[in-house]
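Sample A.
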Amino acid sequence: MSFEEFYKAYPRHTAKEVARTAYNKITFGGLVTEVLGGTLLARATPEQILEAALAFRWKVKIVDETPERFVPLAATWLNQCRFEDQDEDERKEMANKMRTLMERMEKPRLRVVG
């Protein structure tokens, strides 16, 4: 999983580089870091962040129909650890629904000629 996948899944696309910095701070770029002889784990894995972003997108775009101006910037959402706000089962269910919808939207449509 990468930042680009997260950013594509997140419902608002403003201030991309600030969001990238916040993403790397939380995930350590997807790495586990050795500090002073101990292991420092990332706050969340890239997979967890992606799943939470997909679930959040489902909630604000489909369920609540929130206007974009009221959706927090990706950096704000990450820095405030809002990815931890959702119940795990609910998050997985909403993320799966959003994945399915996005996959359907990406498939080419047949054109009827005649």
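Sample B, a different protein:
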Amino acid sequence: MSADGASGGVTIRRATPDDLDTIVALRIALLREYGNHPIYGRLRHDAERRARPMFAAQLDSDSEAMFLAEENHAPIGMIRCVESASSPLLVPDRYCYVSSAYVRPEYRRRGVLTQLLRRARAWCEDRGLTEMRLHNVGTRQASVAAWDALGFEVVEQVRVLRLPEAETVTGLSDAADASHPLHP
């Protein structure tokens, strides 16, 4: 791989504010692939409009970076890295949170994610970060297999409890099971 991240016709480069339209398109495409997911399937109708200022700020942030994979100057994938503070009780003090890892379906299984992750690891090394963390959808076998193959291990789960709009944790209904840990 050359210094610009080129390998097999694919180039990896850091995204800039000029790439905002591309970043919005790729990240929204990622979310749309999960239409049946209990969290990501609840995409707002105006998600693209809401995404623009948030993603613009992320592109301009000193504590994060987005990298684009391109083939013949056309975007085919991306990855986002955020330098995050850990709990003051745990080591390491800081780690890289990886999000929005996405490769267009027609370019998958060609090593593009591996190349994006290689560039993300270099970003981590430049910042003295010694750990990378991410969330992935556990019901997608291809996603699970890809992250396993890239060396990531499962260390926790994300769980969701949907509350009726009128019910809050401090106002559980009287019918709540008294053995429930949140029951008074």
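Observation for Sample B: The longest strand covers residues 74-85.
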